[in-house]
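Listing S7. Sequence submitted for prediction.
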Amino acid sequence: MQTTTLNIIGMHCDGCVQIVKTVIEQQPGVRGCSVSLEVHEARVAHDAAESSSDAIVEAIRKAGYTAILNHPGITGGSWF
């Protein structure tokens, strides 16, 4: 199991959060996710063998948002 943190650009409301959350949850291997409008982040627990971080980023891009992989040590507070 891997946890990936993504910075999400383009979310403006709770509707955007729901869209991003739904897109992420539909990806193979995703076991759970939290999306925060306040910090513009998504934290995704997924099986890397079934769904890569790049595949999740691409799915979010196709939904109209920009997702940037957040590298360890750059994250904000813990809320997942």
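Caption to Listing S7: primary sequence and predicted structure tokens for the chain studied. The beta strands are 2-9, 30-36, 41-46, 66-69. The chain has two helices and four strands.
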